[in-house]
Amino acid sequence: MKLRLILAAIAASLVLTLVAVSADQTRSTPAAAGVPTFTKDVAPILFKNCTTCHRPGEIAPMSLLTYEDARPNAQGIIEEVEAGHMPPWHAEAPEGTFLNERRLSAAEKDTLLTWAKGGAPRGNPADMPAPPVYSEGWQLGQPDVVFELPEAFTVPASGTVPYEYFYIPTEFKEAKWVESIEIRPTARQAVHHVLAFYRAVPDQPRVPSTLIPNREQMREAVPVFGTHPPQRSEKIPNTGGLVATYAPGTNPQVMPFDTAIRLAPGGVFELQVHYTAFGTEVKDRTKVGIRFSKKPAPKEIRITHFFNTGLVLPAGADNVEITADMGFSGDTTVYGIFPHTHLRGKRWQYELQLPDGTKKIILDVPRYDFNWQTYYMFKEPLRIPAGAKLISRAWYDNSTKNPSNPDPKVDVKWGDQTWEEMQYTGLLFAPVPKPASPAARR
Fold first, then answer.
1. Judgement on whether residues 359 and 293 belong to the same structural domain of the protein
2. E-assigned strand segments in 58-104
3. At 324, which CATH number?
4. Do both 254 and 291 map to the same domain?
5. What total of structural domains would you count in the chain?
């Protein structure tokens, strides 16, 4: 009895100590001269750059919406900002090159660091801006329509899970124009990627594609990316293509400028989901949220991909380069590029070769991070002429120097699973229509 009382007293003391520490961590300190305050200087930066992810229910491990949230994480803010880890942005390009840049300006970095190192003062509550309004459960805002898996899928705690295919009828009575689309798994830890295809019978002629994939590089992966999934019923059309991509860290896909994805009436969403067991059995019911374009006549934009299934990464090699390429048969506008490798990928680069032999780098990702995969959307879309070629280069570290390497002692080839590898590129593009002939104009 006496021992239980002693233990209870110790436990109570510990609770009081933890409460005191927690209170001390969030206690406001007066701002020294020249030190920014949270309410006036820091909160606007966090609301603009961070709280899309750093809020309850989102991917980040902590919220930064309030002073009470941010103050205990001041040291972490110093470490992440100084190291360049946050916000997660991995392309090397002049500021303003991309529409969806996730990075701080030099002035914003200085404000955050000076605040955190200067005692992280709260400031005048009257200076606090209104917090951003988010649609619960969605980064793109409240969708116009939401589709979800017909039933929850159980991901086992261990073992290899083959690619799963799910089919969701839309029952669209007329063509729809999509301005943004977000794929949202309910069990993020277990979802390696989702590819959303839209299958529908064409309802009108379409401008022919201007892309020339390298079939030799892509030949071994035709079944992998949803061309002939074994579960597809004969009632589901094989026409239609990729409309959205999800991987760890991706943002919702927002169509740029006056463009939209056109969905023919009566189609079916085909979701290819790659699950990876992580030690705990979970259930997933992935959702797809869509917002429709309000523009009267948007330009049609398309999504496709190219890759190289012939990759081989020798055991212990720390800098293996693998290339893939895509040709262009006609003038094409490219809006965005999505590089994807697994745990051994460390760098990406994209080179455009023009018909006259001119070469230029259009995207350089020297710090590729599997946990933060990005569709890099150009602020000024690229106009690519007929006869040009886009070459992707990915570098891999299959050595012991790579802390994420599943097994540096084995040669690695193309494969579905996370411990295998890919050299994959998503492409957001639109063919440029040829001018009508004089006879057609008449």
1. no
2. none
3. 2.60.120.230
4. yes
5. 3
Same domain flag for 139 and 268: yes
Domain with residue 143: its CATH number is 2.60.120
Burial 164-194 (b: 16+ CB within 10 A, else e): bbbbbebebeeebbbbbbbbbbbbeebbbbb
Phi, psi angle pair for 435, to nearest 5°: -60, 140
Write the pLDDT tens digit of every residue in 173-211: 999 999 999 999 999 889 988 989 999 988 888 888 899
Residues 34-58 pLDDT 10s: 789 999 999 888 988 888 888 887 7
Round the CA-based radius of gyration of the chain to a whole number and report it: 25
Q: Is the pTM of this model over 0.90?
A: no
- Parent domain of 395: 301-435
Mean pLDDT across the chain: 85
- Judged against a pLDDT cut of 50, whether residue 325 lies above it is answered with yes
- Take residue 441 and report the two structure tokens written for it: 């104009």
The residues, ordered by sequence, that sit 6+ positions from 432 with a Cβ below 8 Å of its Cβ are 210, 330, 331, 332, 333, 383
pLDDT for the residue 20: 37
